[in-house]
Amino acid sequence: MERLRTFLKTLGPGLLFASMAIGTSHLVLSTKAGAQYGWVMIIPIILANLLKYPFFEFGVRYTSITENSLIQGYLNLGKRYLVLYGLITLVSVFTILAALYVVTSGLFINLFQITSININTVAAGLFAFISLLLIVGRYRFLEISLKLVISILFLALIVTTFLVINKGQVPSVVGFEPLHIFNEVGVLFLIGLVGWMPTAVEASGWVSMWSMEKIKSMDRKPTLKESLAEFNLGYFLTALLAVFFLIIGWLTLYGTGTELSGNAVIFADQVVSLFTTHVGDWAYFLIAIAAFATMFSTCMTAHDAVARVSLDVINKLYPKNSSFQKKSSFGVTVILLALINWIVISAFGGNMANLVALATFVSFVMAPLIGWMNLKTVSGKDILKKYHPSKGLQILSFLGMLFLSAFALYYCSIIIF
Fold this sequence. Notes:
The protein is mainly alpha-helical. The protein has one domain (10-114, 141-278, 337-416). The chain is 78% helix and 0% strand. It has helices at 2-10, 13-21, 24-37, 42-66, 70-77, 79-111, 119-167, 184-195, 204-217, 224-253, 264-279, 284-317, 329-348, 352-378, 391-416. α4 (42-66) crosses α9 and α4 (42-66) packs across α15. The protein is globular. It starts with a helix and ends with a helix.
C-alpha cells in the first residue's frame, strides 16, 4: 500500500506527456488511419511508439540524475546544439500553439453549435483563460487537473472500444476497394502519422522540464526507477489510446465509403458522432465535453511546455541577462506566447496549413538529430556510467534514428522534388 501511495505521488510528467500527445495525432490521425486503411495501420503506430520511446525516456533519465533540464545537456554538448534546439523551438513558438488553439476553438464552436462567435474571438478567450490558469495554478494545478482529464478520457475510450468490438465491424459497401498505402497519398499520410505519433521528438525537452518541476514540488527527490516507472505508465497509456482510436475508426468506418473531412475540426466532430452511434445519442454532450477537454488539455500542456522551454533556452544562451531569470518571467512568457499566436491566427488564419507544414518539415528533418543529441547527453560525462542507458535501449535508439532518417529523407524528396 505504501509503495502504491509513493507511486501515485510521483505521477506527473508522464501523464502530462500523455495529455499533450493525445491531441490531433490521436483524435484525428489514429482514427483516420483505421477508417481509411484498416487494422494494418496498427503496425506503423506500434513501431513509431516503440522506436521513439528511447528519445523521450532519455529526457526523463537525464533530469532525474542531474536535476538539470535536457536543454542544459545540449549546452554541455556545445553551444551550437543549444542554438539548433532554440531554432526548432522558435518555429514551435509561431506555429504549434496557433494550430492547436485553432482546432480547439473550431471544435468548441462545432460541438456546442455556437455560431454567433467567430473563431478568432473564441481563440482569444481560450488564450486568456489558459494563460490565467497556467500563471496562477502553475505546475501543481496542471498536474492535478490533467490527472482527472486523462482518467475520464481513458474510461470513456475503454467503454466505447468495448462497445464497438462487441458490435462488430460494419459491412462494406458494394464495390469497396481498399486504399493503397504505398502510393504518394498513402505514403504522405503514413509519414504524417509516424512523424506525429506519439508526438514530435523535440518534445523530449518538454518532458525534461516537467520532470524538473516535479522534483521541485516533492518533499524528496524521486529515484531514477520511480521517475521512469511514472513516465513509462504515461507513455504506455499514450500508445494504448492510439490503438483504441484506430480500432474505433477501423470497425465503424472502414469499407463504408464515408467521406472523411480533411479539416481537423470537422473530422473531430465526425469522431464524436462515431462515439454516439455506439453509446447512444444521449451521450453526445458528455462525449463532446470529453473531446473538447482532450484538445483543451493539449493546448494547456503545450502552452506550458513551450513557455518553459523557451525561457530555459534564453536563460542558457544569455546567462548574464537577469531579466529572464525573475520569478515573473514565466508568466510574462505565457502571455507573450498567447499574444504572438493569437496574432498569427488573426493574420494567417487562412494560411495556417502552410505554417503547420513548415513546423512539420522542421520536426521531421530534425528528429533524427534530436534523437542523437538525446543519446549523447545520457551517455556522456554528465551522468555516471552506471546510469547510462542499457545496451538494449541504445540499440533501440539507433534503430529509431535509422527509422526517422528514412522517413525524413523520403519526406524531403517528396517536398523538394
